[in-house]
Amino acid sequence: MDDGVLLSIDGAERVFGGGRTIFGGKKPAVHAVQDVTIDVRKGETLGIVGESGCGKSTLARMIVGLDVPTGGRITFDGRDLAAEAGKDLRRLSRDVQYVFQDPVASLNPRKTIRTILEAPLIHLLRLGKPEREKRLSELMDAVNLAPEFLDRYPHEFSGGQAQRIGIARALAADPKLIVLDEPVSALDVSVQAQVLNILDGLKERFGLTYVFISHDLSVVESVSDRVAVMYFGRIVEIGAGRSIFRTPRHPYTHLLLESAPAPGRKSLLSEDADTELPDPYNPPPGCAFYARCPRRTDICNRQEPPLEAAPHQEEQLAACFNPREGA
Amino acid sequence: MVHIEAQEAAAGTKPAGPTTAWAMRGAMLREFWFYFRQNRGAVIGLAIFTIVVLIAVLAPLLAPHSPTLQNRDALLLPPIWADGGSWTYALGTDAVGRDILSRLIYGARFSLFIGVVVVTLSVTVGVVVGLIAGFFGGWIDTAIMRVMDVILAFPSLLLALVLVAILGPGLMNAMIAIALILQPHFVRLTRASVLSERNREYVISARVAGASKLRLMFVTILPNCLAPLIVQATLAFSNAILDAAALGFLGMGAQPPTPEWGTMLAEAREFILRAPWVVTFPGLAILVTVLAINLMGDGLRDALDPKLKQS
Questions:
Q1: Of all helices (H) and strands (E), which one includes residue A275?
Q2: What does the pLDDT look like over A117-134, one tens digit per residue?
Q3: Cβ–Cβ of B202/A148 closer than 8 Å?
Q4: Are A39 and A94 contacting, i.e. CB atoms less than 8 angstroms apart?
Q5: A189-203, pLDDT tens digit by residue?
Q6: Sheet holding A79-80, edge to edge
Q7: Per-chain mean pLDDT for chain B
Q8: Range with the lowest mean pLDDT among A295-299, A309-313, B249-253?
Q9: CATH number for the domain harbouring residue A232
Q10: Closest among A268, A102, A243, A120 to A185, alpha carbons compared
Q11: CA distance B125 to chain A (A)
Q12: Is residue A270 domain-resident?
């Protein structure tokens, strides 16, 4: 593709379980992520939304090299990421870092902030003591924390502060791409804004690229250049953030937008009893959204809809046979 | 919102955080002592245990007689408060005229020595094996845990007896045997904690930060699994003393004339009706020491359990 692409995910797939038992019976398998193809361009923020269990986090873990895709390819800057993660996770970790959902749980309770932040400097960058000292104060400054916090323990911090430490740790290795796995879901709304602002500032200051995973639509809308909507392990719609939120084409995206609580909206659109995700051990033959879809037709139950662009919009792709037209 | 501000305010008003590692240790110790002190039984246990340790260390100064010196003129003398007791032998003498008090004082050395050696041996082996089982999982885990299950399936004292019978009686062999039967508990405990810690976010984040496997195991995970291990270690200490006494009583542990408490019991068995004090005092010594250590272990658990602490 064009040379602006930093991370390219091509038909990535992750199956859990499977294989055979010792008696030859088949073990059940779950497709956590299926046939996901996304390109992340240098300097952009790609938002990934979807309800819990749709495979967002699995995708994130694969990008960071904590999990290996069972099919497809993930290339980072031209290097095969899966192969590299298996051989030398450290080399990959210098370029791709991860920010966790639960800020306090992601910090070792027995280590001071200094030890925690020094770990990537020692293991990944192999810096000497004076350079580490300098880098530490840079990092603390970057996330607006006072340098004297370095000698405290994680339990002495509030959620927002802890998350900023988590971000500082991800920054420490001077990565090109940071995967943010629900970085603000565990925080209060006012603290969310503060953390999001810091993230935004850091992106410009260090020329970062973000993959921002969240189930909170308003957060994703405010930070993302492009948005991918995931459902049941697949991408159902992808496109520029603004157009997706203004004119969703896939009925699932529409449903997500309608069911999100927003100020001034009295009654939320809620679904009836059969709104669960399909059984992952026994996926439906056609579109996974069939059972919940208001626009379903016969073909949806037989065939899987391909991810296609709208006739007049090249950027916005949706996997639906009967997409909503420019509503 | 409000509580976060309050927290930040509280963090701000704290005196500037301690800067050296030593000051940090001091603060942690003070905190530990604060919680340990809440449990009165534990403090009493600690006090008694300290006294036992002091007695063991100062044995040559405290003991009025040699523990092995036999006095043919004073066989089975009763303690001072009974008729015929004298200050020369405050707790009486045994069947061959040895001073029971002196033997008990020297016996404290053996008991503590047994405890320390057995616990060190079983903890080091148990923790390393458990860490490997929990961290790597899969068939390594299965293999290790099945072996541990086999060891645990035997009645522990019986297994120790068999081991000593194979190795030959003696204090050292008894300690090895006891360490071997106590070690599966440490393996299981370590494995269980490692399993629960292994997938925590801070471990994953250490992986992303480039920590090696060994570092993950011993530097990241192990310190977070220590609290239950310390408690189990204190309880194993008392178990070791008890089992060593049992082996001594059965003639498979320390050999006479070693003034080991269990062995003393065994030697005095035939005089239990004629001279009950010969049996009573070693038994009491074992009881008090084991009880003190168990109480202390309870207090340690309360002080080290973060769940009880944070409320």
A1: none
A2: 988 888 888 888 888 889
A3: no
A4: no
A5: 888 888 899 999 998
A6: A29-41, A5-17, A71-76, A79-80
A7: 84
A8: A309-313
A9: 3.40.50.300
A10: A102
A11: 24
A12: no
Rounded to an integer, what distance in angstroms lies between the CA atom of residue A134 and that of residue A127? 10
Beta partners for A17? A29
Please check whether residue A13 lies inside any domain of the structure. Answer: yes
Q: How far apart are CA A290 and CA A288, in angstroms?
A: 6
On whether the CB atoms of residues B310 and B302 are closer than 8 A, the answer is no
ipTM associated with this complex: 0.79
- The number of angstroms, rounded, from the C-alpha of B177 to the middle of its chain's C-alpha atoms is 16
* Tokens coding A44: 């952009």
Q: Which token pair is B285?
A: 């010594």
Rounded Cα–Cα distance for residues B212 and B215 (Å): 5
- A98/B208 touch (CB, cutoff 8 Å), yes or no: yes
**B contacts of A148 (beta carbons < 8 Å):** 16-17
Q: What are phi and psi of A249, to 5 degrees?
A: -100, -35
A112 Cβ under 8 Å from any chain B Cβ = yes
CB burial readout A200-231, b (16+ within 10 A) else e: eebbeeeebbbbbbbbebebbbebbbbbbbbb
In a domain, A144, yes or no: no
Helix or strand or coil: residue B182?
A: helix
Domain boundaries, chain B: 55-310
Q: B68 φ, ψ to 5°? A: -115, 0
Mean pLDDT of A290-304: 80
CATH topology of domain B55-310: MetI-like fold (1.10.3720)
Count the alpha carbons within 13 Å of A44 in the hemisphere toward its beta carbon. 19
> What is the three-class DSSP state of B273?
coil
Q: Which residues contact B47 (CB under 8 A, 6 or more apart)?
A: B292
pTM to 2 decimals?
0.78
* Arithmetic mean of pLDDT, B100-109: 90
Structural domain boundaries, residue A100: 5-108+174-262+277-318
**Taking the CB of residue A301, how many other CB atoms lie within 10 A of it?**
14
What residues in A contact B200, CB-CB < 8 Å? 105
Q: B interface mutation test: which of A67, A87, A106 has the most B CBs within 10 A?
A: A106
Nearest to B114, CA basis, from B54, B64, B182, B66: B182
φ, ψ at A118 (rounded to 5°): -75, -25
Q: Bridge-partner residues for A98, per DSSP?
A: A179
CA A35 → CA A74, A279, A280, distances in Å? 12, 18, 15
Decide if A194 is inside a domain.
yes
Exposure of A148 in the CB half-sphere (CA atoms within 13 A): 9
Q: With 90 as the cut, is the pLDDT of residue B147 above it?
A: yes
| pLDDT reported for residue A275 | 62
Q: Looking at the 3D structure of chain A, how many domains does it have?
A: 1
A151 touches chain B (CB under 8 A): yes
B33-62 tens-digit pLDDT? 888 888 888 999 999 999 999 999 998 888
Q: Which two tokens stand for residue B63?
A: 């003991």
